[in-house]
Design goal:
- This is Transposase.
- The chain is mainly α and about 80 residues long.
- It has one domain (about 1-75).
- The chain is about 80% helix and about 0% strand.
- It has helices spanning about 1-15, 20-30, 35-65, 75.
- The longest helix has about 35 residues, at about 35-65.
- The chain is rod-shaped, with a radius of gyration of 20 Å.
- It starts with a helix and ends with a helix.
- The mean pLDDT is about 85.
Length: about 80
């Protein structure tokens, strides 16, 4: 339950970053700036990982169709 608090809090900070200073938001919401930046980095890494996975899925599907649906994912790579 506590983990969701951090996610919601950091997402709130990101959404209101243009309106309020980061330092002020963190102080008022009781979180550290370093924690926010760490969360922000994780979000970026997760998005890149999802993009890479989607690209790989497309390539495997393309190769699967190219080989007339005979090979599995291991053989396509």
């Amino acid at each position: 339950m506590r983990g969701n608090f951090w996610i919601v809090t950091y997402a709130f900070i990101r959404e209101h970053n243009a309106q309020f200073k980061l330092k002020t938001q963190c102080r008022l919401l009781g979180v550290s700036r370093s924690g926010y930046y760490e969360w922000l980095g994780q979000v970026g890494r997760n998005q890149r990982r999802q993009q890479q996975k989607a690209k790989l899925d497309q390539e495997v599907t393309r190769l699967f169709v190219l080989h007339k649906s005979r090979y599995g994912a291991r053989q396509c790579l």
